[in-house]
Amino acid sequence: MGSSQAASLWVLLGLGLAGILIMTRKLKQVIREDFGAFVEKLQLLPPPQPAPPKAPHPLTGLTFAVSDVFDIEGHVTGFGHPDWAKTHDPASRTAPVVSTLVQGGATCIGKTVVDELAYSISGVNEHYFTPTNPTAPSKTPGGSSSGAAVAVAANLADFSLGLDTVGGVRVPAAFCGIMGFRPSHGAVSHSGVLPVSTSLDTVGWFAKDPKVLGRVGHVLLQLPFASSRSPRQIVIADDYLQQVKVPTDRIAQVVVKSTEKHFGRQVLKHENLDNYFNLKVPSLRKFHGEKTNGVVKVSSIKLLAHVAQSLQRHEFKQNHDEWINLVKPTLDPATSAQLCGPPESSDMEVEICKSIKNELHAAVNSLLKDDGILVIPTVADPPSKLGGKPLLSEDFRSRAFGLLSIASLSGCCQVTIPLGLHNKNPVSVSFIARHGGDRFLLDTLQTMYTSLQEQADLVTNTKLSKTALTREQSAEVSKEKGNQAFKAKEYQKAIGFYSEAIKLSGNNATYYSNRAAAYLEIGSFLQAEADCSQAINLDKKNVKAYFRRGTAREVLGYYKEAIEDFKYAHVLEPTNKRAAAAAERLRKLFVQ
Hints:
It is a single chain. By secondary structure, the protein is an alpha/beta fold. Helix content is 52%, strand content 12%. It contains 20 helices and 13 strands. The chain has an eleven-stranded mixed sheet with strand order 1-3-2-4-6-5-12-13-11-7-8, sandwiched between helices. Strands 9-10 form a two-stranded antiparallel ribbon. A hairpin with a 2-residue loop joins strand 9 (290-292) and strand 10. It is elongated. It starts with a helix and ends with a helix. Residues 9-32 and 290-296 have low confidence and may be disordered.
């Protein structure tokens, strides 16, 4: 071996080793960071099991993680920002909600990433890196409780805790394809939890298994045993479903079919929420109404979005403005724009917001009563691509907060339910029950969850079947156009149509065989032979493909192979005199 060859070999070997090292580092990084979900690993172990005949702890065997807004004794609560962690001491006691879960038999395994100051719903945190969305790795995981959702979606924990102000649990649940529960406001203690907006904040939780979601709910909500109740009305918000960037029936049809299966069609009701809220929440007219020719035109979903954001911003500043002014932390431009960009809310505007909260609370409770479920989309848009800009846009926030604000402002309970994928993006639906209807909502979820998943799979498979059928039908149309062009001796045009048919449905032997016939007419014998071979691979009994390949091979000088093709065509079709004659002619000329 020459020296230049040896050098080349070493270069290739070096590049190969370098590639292996890079891939190994990447794999180690993914494993080490656990999808980037955790900011700190720890372990809080449950107490020993009680002696029989007492029942074991209700959460025995389950692991959970908590967002980095929950105090754990001896650990600094980071609030999604390193400057906050630097300027605060370790917690002196563990948040009661965390202690309750540990006492209930669950093991806490760590603290998870939250958006900066738990203020955003994007799931992006430039200080701690953005957790990887296990369901859609190229997309954002949603926030603010991004790491908690990722930990559950990646099977790193059985359940997790998050803080939901205006979507902090519901959005990452929707984006990561898991369940997220926002209980009624005030139903779970906020003690030992960093506040964002006190009148909107709710401790929520994530799970993949509806039974686990329910078990956690029974412990945190301290629910005594009671028989479950079936809903007497399931209200589908038709106008709000129109906000979604997926086909409406992708959600509505799934819910309708599941409802009919469990409770009957009679419980279904359709409502235009925009009209209902405009009628039942009169203070909306006072908030940012736009007048045209003396008539007030109000879109309730947009106004509710503005109300929720205004109240969140106002209360956040009340809680944390002193720290921000003192420390002057470096804030993400999106956070800074939301906190500092809009003008301060006046006292009158704040009072209007509070009036809207009270009126919305009464309106939703009146609509649903004790036995109703409201069906809305969780979010309008799919998760954004990592590094994408839609999350920063006003339109995106308005669509998202308009939907999220119903439960946040009314104080009602809401659960996010995954419904599979659409165009590789997670799809979800949300059920809302009146304030205090948490058990009823969890029971309804338990009843409907399996059939919702079955219906979602059915809709997806039906769509795929229809798409496949449409492609096959389109391919047939292209083939027929090719046949017409062939008869008109427009062979190049025929080849184009047959190629289009192959592109639409590449497993049809006839399309290749017909294109081969057109290639033969223009003297492209190599292409004709290749197409015939492909047709034969797809259909071993395609007589025309054998005959046309024999014709191409005869011209190309492959006489023995041509004879074999003609003979086999005659075997498949004994009445094919042309194949028999061609084989005999070549045999006499070239076979001695």
